[in-house]
Amino acid sequence: MQKEGTLILVVGLPGSGKGTLISYAKKHFPSIVFPISWTTRPKRPGEREGEVYHFVAEEEFSRAVSAGEFLEWVSIDGGHRYGTLRREILLPLSEGKTLLREVEVAGAKKLRALLPEVDIVYIFIDGGPWEDLSKRMLERAPMSEEELEERHKRYERELSFKSEAKYVIENVYGKLGEVEQEFSDIISRIERES
Ligand code: 5GP
């Protein structure tokens, strides 16, 4: 029987730079599968449909929830929903592939509980103190006081996951080249060991 694949889950604080690192990995690891998740949040400037997310309406998301199409889904940041699709994860895993996906901490824990047989490796991206992160987030996209406050709470929750991750990357601002190299070294190592 073919060996099950490996699921690399990238967890990190909002605004920690996960997205940039994952885009970098996409260019450098053609053999890795990057599953698309669904979200009901609006598209941000520069984002393209089908790259990281499939952007859907509330009704479409609800339909997929009822149909059992998600492995896990959450509602965060003022009611925006995000979900990983069964088919996007289970099929490539059964084919022995390595997958890499970013999820928030509740999803990361749920996937571990749901897939006890699967080799799941966590990489935590630490983007530094809340003051710096919130500044960067607001530069990226404006948000209401409430949304910012909710993200602050999530910051605390995500930080509590840091000790559970096998790999931690300190995303030092202004050292992107080095951080990308570190991320890439970790992925190569996971691929070698899986
Ligand atoms: P953003 O709106 O900044 O793209 O994502 C918000 C948070 O949702 C991030 O922490 C991101 O990792 C997480 N996220 C993205 N896709 C999924 C998913 O499919 N499931 C879960 N649980 N979280 C996700």
Q: End-to-end span in angstroms? A: 16 Å
Rg over alpha carbons: 16 Å
Number of E-state strands: 8
Mean pLDDT, to the nearest integer, reads: 93
Strand content: 15-25%
Question: Can you tell me about this structure?
Answer:
With 194 residues, this protein is an alpha/beta fold. It has one domain (6-193): Rossmann fold. 43% of the residues lie in helices and 22% in strands. The chain has seven helices and eight strands. The strands form two sheets. Strands 6-1-7-8 form a four-stranded parallel sheet, sandwiched between helices. Strands 3-2-5-4 form a four-stranded mixed sheet, with helices on both faces. Helix 1 (18-28) crosses helix 7 (176-193). The longest helix has 18 residues, at 176-193. The chain is globular, with a radius of gyration of 16 Å. It starts with 5 loop residues before the first strand and ends with a helix. The model has no long low-confidence stretch (mean pLDDT 93). Bound molecules: guanosine-5'-monophosphate. Guanosine-5'-monophosphate binds at residues 14, 37, 41, 72, 74, 82-84, 102-104, 107.
Descriptive terms for the model:
4-stranded parallel beta sheet; 194 residues; Rossmann fold; single chain; globular; binds guanosine-5'-monophosphate; 7 helices; alpha/beta; 8 strands
Can you describe this structure in just a few lines?
The chain is 43% helix and 22% strand.
